[in-house]
Design goal:
Low-confidence stretches of chain A: 1-15
Number of strands of chain B: 31
Order of helices and strands of chain A: HHHHHHHH
Strand content of chain A: under 5%
Helix content of chain B: 25-40%
CATH class of the domain at 56-128 in chain B: Alpha Beta
Oligomer: heterodimer
Shape of chain B: elongated
Largest interface: A-B, 37 and 28 residues
Number of helices of chain B: 24
Shape of chain A: globular
CATH class of chain A: Mainly Alpha
CATH superfamily of the domain at 56-128 in chain B: Penicillin-binding protein 1b domain
CATH superfamily of chain A: Tetratricopeptide repeat domain
Structural class of chain B: alpha+beta
Strand content of chain B: 15-25%
Largest sheet of chain B: 6 strands, mixed
Chain lengths: 134, 763
């Protein structure tokens, strides 16, 4: 945590990870920016809060592993219909769209995820990586 | 002479034989052609979205109950014990699900707390995280003969159903060659005695031949043709293939103009579930109907249908397929069929038109009418019903108020999920079930003030020049038009207001200030915003365009507002979720498409003003609790001489557009507020949506400003309002007389500390 706290510009201002410039992060975090496979592994570690969405995530991840991107995407979209406040869904969709070659959509899903009030700091950081692709 | 008679006889015999052979050959090719091809042309079925109930998911219990009612679930007291029943207690709902696709039928208990599903448990107490209700069948894409069916393969036909059919219809099916002389003789003797047709004596093969090629009339000539066709069927096909064709083809019911064929569709039609989920008494009812689909219809003649069902049950008991005990249990059960979900070609004609438009992008007409596609749409049947009820109720109320002036009032409405662009409900008339001109997609009308948010959004993207407190000029304006004419816009209240802050100009919907703003921005800047909002038309270059002479359909309007309601993310409207082939292999999915067209900040500012419409503007009248709960915002629109009454607004994830007016374009007494808004209000009050919290963009800061001059003010100053700014664009100036009433951060902190001290001292 302290790694990120140092980046705030004003001591008065409340820490807001949405504001952070990802390029300013440490080298370990920079690995996320350069190695897509490493990033994907991190994304797949993000779980959902609701058990019903978590079940859908597992289904989507299985399809993803089988390289059935369409079915993985359908499952994640089904998850979004159930809950729009699960960062795990936005992160996976952002990465999946990237694999599908849809860079603008990848970024858009990440930007949407950034508006999710329930997102944790780590999730916001990961989302910022995708949103910065534009 | 003798010779010539013989010759004539021979010739006659030869001609007869040639004709007979030709007839049989033609019939033979018909048999093969029909059974191999035409019979298997299955119309596409259209369904609403299946409702998913998830542990932890948000839920409105009234909406769930409405969904269950639409799906013909019966409210019972106590714990439901048969499929299609539900009960409700203070904090739980018990549903006996009928089953659909991979969703097992069974009893599920939903515990609900604070508009959330706390847990879902099966009858045996095991927790389940997700269940799915069967989707409502809402229509089909029918060929001209209007025969509808769901094709089954042999593995999908329950063994007990097969046995039951054979016991009742054709005991010797596996031993005869298409016709049974024994059955014919038995029927002949019985009919001779009765001096009429009392018993058919037809085998299953003959019945199949009859339904495929011949009319229902009972003549000797037709019987002979039927027998020949039956023999030909037996030559070409195995017994299993014949029985399967019969199960798929037999006529079971008529629903309006639609003919229900086969057990697969009959199961869905009468019981709302797959054939595999039917109980024996339900199967017996269907088998009993084969003798006379109309005579033994459980909908029109329930007593006769029950007697016939019980007879079928006694026949299978006599054949030892069930025990005496089972027979008594099954016989004691009521019929419990569901009413048909739709009678004409589609339950929701206007929505169906939108689905057809979307389908035509990927499928040709013949695919839709013959390939048995299963189309899962985004239609939400509860939202659709609320929409229909709202427009009908509101029209009645308005007619009571305005009388005959509103004779012939028409309307349209569309509801979408603004997050995804999914179209969830649509009506194209104030009589929503009527076919005909669909105003939701075809009525091109001037949109009045609905255009204004597009102009203001164009401005708010230029942070350095425009913010919510920027002063706009609302004094008299004269614009020279080509040809020397002068155009002078006026405000609805016929007054000019001088310099006013931008947020006031929009929330009060001032025409003159908006025209000046549009002209300052320029047509190309405004055009760019229109395009980003998904409006495909080019705007004409005349100034009245900025105050609403621009024409759009309700469908185009809701697409444009989708991007605003959805925080700047554009998603193309879409009425279809998936299209599956009859083998349940995914044929086509319609994935979420999303594109960020605007930064969140200008959208946040615009939505702040659209919320003001509900607080103090043209949509005022809602409680602050409701405005906060729904996270609502919207805009009224009235065209010249009140020929069009519009409202578009969002609440929760729902975005709805309403248009009211006359097809002949005559004047109406309705404004956007007194007409279309009332439909919106009626609808949203029924739905009472639950909104998701959205994070405020980090660069947004709030400041107290004056509602007249737009300069800095304070909480304690008169005529001040707290409004959002993009960081760094806040006004810097504060007039001397307001310095006292503006509470600085320090003094505010001091004030809070003092209050805490006071509280401690009191304690």
């Amino acid at each position: 945590m302290s790694l990120f706290l140092g980046c705030t510009s004003s001591p008065k201002k409340e820490t807001n990870f949405y504001d952070l410039e990802v390029e300013k992060f440490s080298s370990s975090v920079k690995l996320l920016l350069t190695d897509l496979e490493f990033l994907k592994k991190e994304i797949l570690k993000v779980n959902a809060n609701k058990p019903s969405v978590q079940r859908i995530l597992i289904e989507a991840d299985d399809k993803w592993m089988e390289e059935d991107l369409k079915k993985a995407s359908s499952a994640l979209e089904r998850g979004l219909r159930i809950a729009k406040d699960e960062s795990a869904l936005y992160l996976r969709l952002a990465h999946l769209r990237l694999e599908q070659g849809l860079i603008k959509e990848s970024s858009a899903f990440a930007e949407r995820g950034l508006l999710n009030k329930n997102a944790s700091s780590w999730e916001l950081l990961l989302l910022k990586i995708y949103s910065a692709q534009k | 002479m003798k010779l010539s008679l013989k010759l004539i006889t021979y010739l006659s015999l030869i001609i007869f034989s040639v004709i007979s052979i030709a007839y049989v050959s033609i019939l033979d090719s018909k048999v093969v052609n029909k059974l191999d091809g035409v019979l298997w042309t299955v119309p596409a079925k259209v369904y609403a979205r299946p409702l998913e109930l998830a542990e932890g998911g948000k839920i409105n219990v009234d909406v769930l109950k409405k969904e269950l009612e639409i799906l013909s679930y019966e409210l019972t007291k106590g714990i439901p014990d048969t499929p299609g029943e539900f009960s409700q207690s203070q904090r739980s709902v018990n549903i006996f699900i009928r089953g659909f696709g991979s969703q097992e039928p069974g009893l599920y208990r939903l515990k609900i707390e604070n508009d959330k599903i706390d847990s879902i448990k099966r009858k045996d107490g095991i927790s389940i995280d997700l269940i799915q209700l069967e989707p409502l069948s809402i229509g089909g894409m029918f060929p001209s003969h209007l025969q509808d069916r769901i094709l089954l393969n042999f593995s999908q036909v329950p063994k007990d159903l097969e046995e039951m059919i054979l016991v009742v219809e054709d005991r010797n099916f596996y031993s005869h060659k298409g016709i049974s002389l024994r059955s014919i003789m038995r029927a002949f003797i019985k009919n001779t005695r009765a001096l009429g047709i009392e018993e058919g004596g037809s085998t299953i093969t003959q019945q199949l031949a009859k339904s495929l090629f011949f009319s229902p009339e009972q003549t000797i000539k037709r019987k002979i043709k039927e027998a020949i066709a039956a023999l030909l069927i037996e030559i070409h096909y195995s017994k299993q293939e014949i029985l399967l064709a019969y199960i798929n083809d037999v006529f079971i019911a008529q629903s309006g103009r639609r003919a229900i064929h086969g057990f697969g569709l009959a199961s869905q039609f009468f019981f709302g579930t797959d054939l595999k989920n039917l109980s024996l008494d339900q199967k017996a009812l269907l088998v009993g109907m084969l003798k006379g689909p109309s005579l033994y219809s459980p909908i029109n003649n329930p007593d006769r249908a029950k007697t016939r069902r019980d007879l079928v049950l006694s026949l299978i008991k006599n054949d030892s397929l069930i025990t005496e005990e089972e027979y008594l249990d099954l016989k004691g059960r009521s019929l419990k069929v569901i009413p048909p979900s739709f009678k004409s070609l589609s339950k929701y004609p206007a929505f169906n038109d939108i689905v057809t438009l979307d389908l035509r992008k990927n499928f040709d007409d013949s695919d839709l009418r013959t390939k048995g596609l299963k189309i899962i749409t985004n239609l939400d049947p509860v939202v659709q019903d609320y929409l229909e009820e709202s427009i009908k109720d509101t029209k009645l109320q308005l007619k009571r108020r305005y009388g005959s002036q509103l004779n012939g009032l028409e309307g349209a409405g569309i509801v979408i999920d603004s997050f995804s662009g999914e179209v969830v409900a649509a009506i194209g008339s104030t009589k929503p079930n009527n076919y005909g001109f669909n105003r939701a997609i075809n009525a091109v009308r001037p949109i009045g003030s609905l255009v204004k948010p597009f102009i203001y959004l164009s401005a708010l993207q230029h942070y350095s020049k425009y913010n919510l407190s920027t002063l706009l000029d609302d004094s008299k304006l004269s614009v020279s038009l080509p040809g020397g004419k002068l155009w002078e816009p006026n405000n609805f209240d016929k007054k000019f207001h001088g310099n006013i802050p931008l947020h006031v100009a929009l929330s009060e919907s001032y025409n003159v200030a908006t025209t000046r703003l549009g002209m300052d921005l320029g047509y190309s800047v405004v055009q760019e915003t229109f395009t980003k909002l998904g409006i495909k038309k080019k705007i004409p270059k005349y100034p009245s365009i900025f105050v609403g002479s621009f024409e759009m359909t309700p469908l185009e309007v809701i697409q444009a507002y989708q991007t605003i309601a959805s925080e700047g993310f554009y998603s193309p409207l879409n009425s279809i979720r998936t299209v599956e082939s009859s083998e349940d292999v995914l044929s086509l999915s319609y994935p979420y498409k999303v594109e960020q067209r605007f930064r969140p900040e200008p959208i946040y500012l615009l939505k702040f003003v659209l919320k003001q419409t509900f607080i103090s503007g043209t949509a005022r009248g809602f409680s602050s609790r409701v405005i906060e709960k729904w996270k609502t915002g919207g805009k009224t629109g009235t065209s010249d001489d009140q020929r069009d009454s519009w409202f578009v607004g969002y609440a929760g994830n729902y975005l709805m557009v309403v248009w009211l007016g006359f097809d002949d374009n005559r004047k109406s007494p309705l404004t956007g507020r007194t007409g279309a808004l009332q439909v919106w209000k009626n609808f949203m009050s029924r739905l009472d949506p639950i909104a998701y919290e959205v994070r405020k963009p980090s660069r947004i800061r709030y400041e107290w400003v004056d509602t007249k001059d737009g300069l800095l003010s304070g909480e304690r100053c008169k005529g001040s309002i707290l409004i959002p700014f993009v960081e760094g664009t806040e006004p810097e100036m504060i007039p001397q007389n307001r310095k006292k009433c503006r509470i600085s951060e320090e003094s505010y902190t001091a004030k809070v500390l003092n209050k805490i001290k006071e509280a401690i001292e009191v304690k």
